[in-house]
Design brief:
Blueprint: H1 2-24, H2 34-39, E1 42-47, E2 49-71, E3 77-82, E4 89-90, E5 95-99, H3 102-144, H4 150-189, E6 192-194, E7 199-202, E8 211-212, E9 219-234, E10 246-250, E11 259-262, E12 265-266, E13 276-284, E14 295-312, E15 317-318, E16 325-330, E17 357-363, E18 365-370, E19 373-377, E20 384-388, E21 398-403, H5 406-437, H6 442-445
Helix pairs in contact: 3-4
């Protein structure tokens, strides 16, 4: 029995000695704070400000080209030549696609031949009419001098009326033939599909040899100098979002860049299924940052809240045990322990951590949110509130604090927003690819997709920077 316990006892002794050694000496790599610093949580905090909160609503928008149109053929025929490629800029009237025109040229020749025949018939009818009218005129003169019988005069008058009717009929046939020729010329003209506007060509779906009909889109055409962003407006925002209000447009691939524009127009009609309407934003696009079909984030600024204490939304923390919403504050910083918010933040040389300082959870009421900032009650202006590391404080009464700047917190929140949006867009693209590659049979099409387990909910205003 003693022999079996000896290795375990020896191991326990080593662990105890190691722990005692760790407690007896401070660790230089922890900044010289000794044993307590090795387990003391470190958080990052910022000072609450006072002011009015800009009210805004974050919406998702879709980019459309100016005058974006789908190009369809007007006749049914095979494609013989495609004159443009994706990305080409074309002027209005430029040829895009050529369709086989043999049949339409033959129809035009037949129509023109019929027209010529009718024109010849009309000339004969006109000549006959003139000859009969001349005879009738001489007969009327002789009848006036009692040199011609009334019977012969009546016969010539009937003949003249018949000649007039024949000539009128010939003219009608000419008009009909001319309409047929015009129709054939129009059909032949439609064998060349031309650009209705000037703009860029995209989404090519035309190949030589394809037989296309009026239901087959060939290209998408639009101008990129100015684009239109369409955003849905829910019914609860219709009274707040109005034309002329500022809209801040951003996208994950732009980094911190934001395009400022204004709401151009709002549809007065609500969709009966979604109870929402559409707002449009016209945006100059000289650098080509906005591409048709692109998803962007649009922050619509529609007013200001009342004056209140302002904190970053990342400071808001919901206690998982009680469900209470609040913030953690460093109660002694700024009062018992002097500390000032740094003017700048250097990632390579961040501000040092403070000594362990008391922490307190304060329940708050959110008055308004907007732009990554929340106006709250329950916290005083100048109080240090924790924005990173709240989950480390649930069972701690003290922590070491690193002060942050408001600009630093804003950049961190934007970074996380972009990460969330990128995850959402990657998921949407993955679902689209899986849907495109799904088998055509009914059984495979009805199987649930595994990707539905990865659903990412994007709600940047409630996103937390807590690791």
């Amino acid at each position: 029995m003693i022999h079996r316990l000896t290795p375990l006892f020896f191991t326990l002794c080593l662990l105890v000695l190691a722990a005692c050694g760790a407690d007896s000496e401070p660790r230089s790599d922890r900044g010289g704070w000794g044993r307590e610093s090795a387990t003391m949580p470190a958080v990052e905090a910022i000072q609450a400000r006072y002011g009015a909160l800009p009210l805004q609503s974050r919406l998702n928008g879709t980019v459309r080209a100016e005058n974006q149109v789908l190009i369809y053929p007007e006749i049914t025929a095979p494609i013989t030549r495609v004159a443009v490629q994706n990305g080409d800029y074309v002027q209005r009237g430029a040829a895009l696609v050529y369709l086989r025109d043999t049949q339409f040229q033959e129809q035009l020749r037949q129509a023109e031949a019929t027209l010529q025949i009718n024109q010849a018939d009309a000339k004969r009818a006109e000549a006959t009419l003139k000859e009969v009218q001349a005879r009738l005129e001489r007969t009327e003169q002789l009848a006036d001098r009692q040199l011609q019988s009334a019977q012969e005069l009546g016969t010539l008058q009937a003949e003249a009326a018949s000649a007039e009717a024949t000539y009128a009929q010939a003219l009608a046939r000419i008009a009909q033939a001319e309409a047929t020729v015009a129709e054939a010329q129009e059909a032949l003209r439609q064998t060349v599909v031309r650009a209705p506007i000037s703009g860029y060509v995209g989404q090519r779906d035309a190949e030589v040899g394809m037989r296309v009909t009026g239901n087959n889109p060939l290209f998408t055409l639009g101008s990129l100098e100015t684009v239109r962003i369409e955003i849905p407006i829910a019914d609860n925002l219709i009274g707040q979002v109005q034309e002329g209000q500022t809209a801040l447009i951003s996208a994950p691939q732009w980094g911190d860049r934001v395009i400022e524009a204004s709401i151009s127009r709002i549809s007065p009609f609500l969709d009966a299924a979604t109870f929402s309407t559409d707002a449009e934003i016209d945006v100059p696009n000289p650098e080509g940052l906005l591409r048709p079909g692109m998803f962007v984030t649009v922050d619509v600024l529609y007013g200001e809240s009342t004056q209140a204490a302002l904190v970053p939304t990342s400071a808001l923390y919901e206690d998982p045990n009680t469900g209470r919403l609040g913030v953690y504050t460093a109660t002694s910083l700024g009062t018992e322990v002097p500390l000032a918010e740094p003017e700048t933040y250097d990632e390579d040389n961040p501000p040092p951590l403070t000594e362990p300082t008391p922490m307190a959870f304060t329940e708050v009421e959110v008055l308004a949110r907007g732009g990554g900032v929340a106006g709250i009650t329950g916290v005083g202006v100048g109080d240090w509130v924790v924005v990173v590391g709240q989950n480390l404080l649930s069972r701690r009464e003290e922590a070491r604090v690193r002060p942050l700047t408001w600009d630093r917190v804003a950049s961190l929140q934007r970074l996380q927003d972009r990460d969330l949006l990128r995850q959402f867009m990657e998921k949407q693209q993955r679902l689209a690819q899986e849907s495109y590659a799904a088998p055509a049979d009914e059984d495979a099409a009805t199987q649930p997709r595994e990707a539905s387990r990865d659903t990412v909910t994007v709600n940047p205003q409630q996103a937390s920077l807590t690791p």
